[in-house]
Amino acid sequence: MTKNSANLRVRLPALIFALEVMxxxxxxxxxxxxxxTNALLQTNMTKPMENAVYQDYPFFADIQMMIFxxxxxxxxxxxxxxxxxxxxxxxxxxxAIQWAILIQGFFHFYYDGKIHLGVINLINAEFxxxxxLISFGAVLGKTSPVQLLVSLFEILFExxxxxxxxxxxxxxxxxxxxxxxxxxHVFACYFGLGVTFILYRPSLNDGHSKECTxxxxxxxxxxxxxxxxxFWPSFNCALTLRGDDQHRxxxxxxxxxxxxxxxxxxxxxxxxKNGKLSMADVQNVTLAGGVTVGASVDMMIxxxxxxxxxxxxxTACMLGYKYLSPFLARRLRxxxxxxxxxxxxxxxxxxxxxxxxxxxxxxxxxxxGLGRTAKEQALYQLAALGSTIALAAVGxxxxxxxxxxxxxxxxxxxxxxxxxxxxNVPADxxxxxxxxxxxxxxxxxxxxxxxxxxxxxxx
Amino acid sequence: MTKNSANLRVRLPALIFALEVMxxxxxxxxxxxxxxTNALLQTNMTKPMENAVYQDYPFFADIQMMIFxxxxxxxxxxxxxxxxxxxxxxxxxxxAIQWAILIQGFFHFYYDGKIHLGVINLINAEFxxxxxLISFGAVLGKTSPVQLLVSLFEILFExxxxxxxxxxxxxxxxxxxxxxxxxxHVFACYFGLGVTFILYRPSLNDGHSKECTxxxxxxxxxxxxxxxxxFWPSFNCALTLRGDDQHRxxxxxxxxxxxxxxxxxxxxxxxxKNGKLSMADVQNVTLAGGVTVGASVDMMIxxxxxxxxxxxxxTACMLGYKYLSPFLARRLRxxxxxxxxxxxxxxxxxxxxxxxxxxxxxxxxxxxGLGRTAKEQALYQLAALGSTIALAAVGxxxxxxxxxxxxxxxxxxxxxxxxxxxxNVPADxxxxxxxxxxxxxxxxxxxxxxxxxxxxxxx
Amino acid sequence: MTKNSANLRVRLPALIFALEVMxxxxxxxxxxxxxxTNALLQTNMTKPMENAVYQDYPFFADIQMMIFxxxxxxxxxxxxxxxxxxxxxxxxxxxAIQWAILIQGFFHFYYDGKIHLGVINLINAEFxxxxxLISFGAVLGKTSPVQLLVSLFEILFExxxxxxxxxxxxxxxxxxxxxxxxxxHVFACYFGLGVTFILYRPSLNDGHSKECTxxxxxxxxxxxxxxxxxFWPSFNCALTLRGDDQHRxxxxxxxxxxxxxxxxxxxxxxxxKNGKLSMADVQNVTLAGGVTVGASVDMMIxxxxxxxxxxxxxTACMLGYKYLSPFLARRLRxxxxxxxxxxxxxxxxxxxxxxxxxxxxxxxxxxxGLGRTAKEQALYQLAALGSTIALAAVGxxxxxxxxxxxxxxxxxxxxxxxxxxxxNVPADxxxxxxxxxxxxxxxxxxxxxxxxxxxxxxx
Lengths: 459, 459, 459
Fold this sequence. Notes:
homotrimer, mainly alpha, Ammonium transporter fold, three-stranded mixed sheet, 14 helices, disordered C terminus, Ammonium transporter AmtB-like domain-containing protein (chains A, B, C), NH4_transpt_AmtB-like_dom (chains A, B, C), RhesusRHD (chains A, B, C), ammonium channel activity (chains A, B, C)
């Protein structure tokens, strides 16, 4: 406790202030307004209503809802780690966006010696932020009690690696990935798995007494899912071409999500014991379709194909939770706390393959602008997938190694999933029953296993 | 329990997969892109920013919030049926929209042998979905433990009947009903009452021990009300003419809702014992104004008239909860669980009459496009009202009869309003006190009656 | 209780109906449609898509979310006053907006003998409503059990005084205050402090047993913060010039909020005992940056300056909670329940000073339209600040005196912060443990003090 106290009271403020000083200096030296925010570049001919803000801001606002409210609620599913889930999501998202504005700025918005800033940069930074939040899912609650520091350090390393991957994929390989299935979801997944591989904790394979949900935390988490579900079309279409491309992206995302939602209910009833639905499935598996349609979301794939992709992605995701995650945890030392490999990895791979198949049909069609044959484009897509996975996994593992440095001393297992280490908790916090107080002591092992497999599903 | 288990584990997946196969086949055969989503129909002259998506998507997103988050939270007001309220709303809405895309597609968007799809179809489908969710309010929690199947079956029948009503009213009678007061609210109400009339359960007239709210569930439910309240202007204006019509629709809806909210607080304090406010009133009666302004929402009715309609609708709704619902339940076998007859039926009728009165004043004025006199148009409006009620009530009763088929065996009363039949519940679920555990055993009958009358108000 | 019962059962409805009659009469006599909502003013040349509704409605909807959902959740942080926080926010906001439509209408939208109404009026009214809700923070839960009446009376007086201040500042002094830091935040703060100064309750300086939060109420309150955070850019830019000004306003607000969020986490860990984070800090202090950038939000201040303003505002706000609020409460009789002087007062002052500094640099530059030198404009800004504070404080104190009239008899201290006086509460309400039941009886004084200082921070 003293150690933790010192960490938070001294090291957290010290780290944050250092980061803030760094950011403000970089802002002062390098960041200026872009053509749509600089008053000096407006002339008598400029029509105010044609400012890019009116195209970009609505999508930005929708994605803000997903990042801060959707993710925030979704991640507060632990009974005794609700503050942590929602509030650390707030902190990490805020920092990740600021950092991404700079990193992506140097890669994509840098000319005349300056990073040029408008709402479009913020949208891009929110995508980088989504990458960070997704990969955090692999280690949620496991890196306490210095998790706060860890989070900020992880962001510090993850965002630049993502910047490199983005630059390779978008600028050099010029692949189709409108919804970010490869860049965002696959990258985030393998980065997170890389980190958790290094931070392996054998004892957590047997479950943890505080790893349960409560009735209220499950409700809040589903609410988060609904926010993500509702605004996912905005996420998938924000960076596509204006006009019919963007229109199709919205349509396909909606159809894909609808298909995966229906499928998730069917599979949840079918695969859980007694035919009862699992809230964890409702919270996660319903969203699989949003990822699966990603890489081909703006193409002319037909609505039926979007529907099929949603069903397929959901099925892969569900089977992954049921069979692959326990295998990864036990055999490959990959403890994937929120199952991001199922919701973002497997679905991202399916999406990549689907986009390649679609390209075979469509080229030589509308999109041959790059002068590549269908086969060539397919190879480029595969190269993008491969390099994304490689960069992400290596970057994740290196980050994991840095996090093991003695200065960031790892917590003992018992301190996981607990708000009390970080927060002044209200008086009723210690009244909430935990697993072993609920009359399950004699069958605690079994109960915890159930609890673990229901909620976390890496067991 | 075994029976229920079999139902969910085998029949639910079987039913869902069958529906999905049917949908995907119909999508593959009949659904294609419309002029704004089809890349092949864009030319060099097409301006991307004039794509319909930029007019339709913002309203679509707002209505999504209402359907998935607003309704989802509002319906989770039962203490032990919160998962059911929010999650089954998610499932039924998702399925209803998919099904409505097809049914409405055949009625409204079918030409050249195909249904043509854009975001505008999704908006229409969300309206059909709202119909389904409203009418479900009549039977919420009462049809368990096979409610899931029942829900999906009910949608299967309700959407096509609604499609017919919509076709008659919009295409043939050409009435004024911009906010859908007749088509959506009145139809949904009488369909739901038709179903519940057939599924009558005498014993529930005496209340049910699990039919209470909790502090947290009441909070969440009010949050749902606020989401509906905030986005209702988008709902009422989404399908009106662009320009000043849409502008007026927003204004009138806001004014109507404001008036009904103030009135609801006054009446709640006045009519409840001890002058205490009832959360059920705050959750429901405040919204009455949104329905009452519906049928004349885009007309030049004046802001004061919108205010008066809000007050009037709210008063009718409140008196309905207090006096009409108990009467309907005891004498007419119509057990209206959420009081949809008050919030959607009575207010819809008022809205219809108000629109007729307005038309008498306005024609021969701006809107004589159809070559009808004011009186003729009034008769058409009445015809629309009559045929909507008739179709809805008959359709609802037939659906109720289908739901009584032996295959869908009705649950015994004690299994109502309980999440545990459907979900793997967290360990703290069985710790939440229910009515009879709260020291009310000696006065249980009274307590339950109170609880029933406060929360559900059909007693 | 009998007294309270009479107040609510008779006086509340009587007051509301009287207000409604007044409003509807004024609407009928004075309110008509504006150029964008009046069908009679549209010609063949009118392009529907150029209607002002398409520029205004998206911002209006965002601000609605802040007012009804953001504030509603934020204010429900008390363990036993959650209904009160969320529901009374709903009531007061609804009434404040209706009243502001009339008052502001006479000041700003009145010509040809009529108030002309469009969505733009609603946006303005929401700003007035924000003023009311902020100043209520000073007396939250303290004016029960006649708080409902009190609230409505307070609005009745506050909105016109605000109208006068607005008229002086905007029409006469013509100052820069795009985000409303002076007009909205400073006015609201000093009005609220004026009221609470008159309603001083010495005994509350020692804390109150029901003044604690619970785990769930803290979660909900953070959720409210997140909604305010996400939509604050819309609030700060809604009334700026279209085009690059609006674009910059969004950017600066986002950057300012991000900086203040990071800083809030650092300071919270640094200043709270054991280095633990306080949820009250996360709920309030993170938002300081949104106010601090307000007065110069549309200027060319540079992103780095926005960042610095965010950090500065957050630091002032945090130190205010820690050191200034207890001083104000003990020495100056100003009990500032939610600490509005920190979040809105100090930050508003900083924002005013920052805008003056910026003006010195920018003029003679882009904005010299008024033919004033930089120094002259600075003096006008100071005059605006001074007259705003004076009007607000005097208006607030007069309102406080009116609220002390015998008819509105003040409640005894023990009846504060309690839902049960106003609501039919669910059966589990009395099961929730309060402070003294949580094993803190022996150390109750200390506990309550902690609780008070953590949650409310005026101690």
